[in-house]
Every structure is written in structure tokens, then in C-alpha cells.
Amino acid sequence: MQVHLRQHIRTALKCTIKVTHPDFAEDIIANTEDLSDTGVFVQHPVLAGLKVGDVVYGQVQDMPIEAPVLMLEVMRVTPDGAGFRFIQQ
């Protein structure tokens, strides 16, 4: 059994994020679970239908100014949501 040790510390962070993907009928409003320097886990059952390697766009909501839209790659999928890594644009 291979054990994967995390390279980046995760911080529990609950915030609202809008996730966009061409296969979604409409944008998904979801909640983050945790965040690291390189990625984020987002909770929403629709995200469980994504595949590792899929690319989505995410934008944090409810900020005092409009947050940037970030490109995210699916790294893992669970029944509760998906883990993404940030893609540098």
C-alpha cells in the first residue's frame, strides 16, 4: 500500500465558491472544505461526476470586491465533492 504524504499544509476554510464547467447545466454554488497553497476541496454532490484531469473554473463569492476566476484541475473525486489543484494561467 502506497501512502501519500501531503507536501502542503491544509487549512480548514469554509467559503462559498461558484464552479463552472461546460457539462454543467448551470453554475454550481458550493462550499469549500479546506485550502492549501496549491489547491482546494469543494463540497457538492454534482462535482462527484467529474473525472480526474477535468478542468473547471472557480470563483470565490461574497467578497468585498469581485474575486478572480481561477482555473482548477480535478485531482480526486469523492461522493461529497472534488479536490482541485490551482492551474497557473
UniProtKB/TrEMBL annotation:
It comes from Thiopseudomonas denitrificans. GO terms for molecular function: cyclic-di-GMP binding. It comes from the Bacteria. This is PilZ domain-containing protein. Pfam families: PilZ. Residues 5-87 form the PilZ domain.
